[in-house]
Amino acid sequence: MRIDCWAIMPDHLHVILAITGAHIGAPLHEIIKWYKTQTTNDYIRQVKQGVLPPFQTRIWQRGYYDHVIRNDTDLTEIRRYILENPIQTHRNAK
Question: Where are the domains of the chain?
Fold first, then answer.
């Protein structure tokens, strides 16, 4: 598995994971759970050190949304959305 494209947004993130070869290792939901756990623990550690302010609600939403990309057209459109989403969000914030 490799990361094909990604964008970190103020309240979520977008990632295209390219699965290469036969499936080995943990299923996707376990990888997502691990990532959320690691980043939450890191955040809490930084709050305790006074580096970051406390967060009053959940850091992560429950679950995640996935979409199987089935062709090159779909891949191109989703990559474009991911790469343009931070720019569009910044423009809308002004």
Answer: 2-93
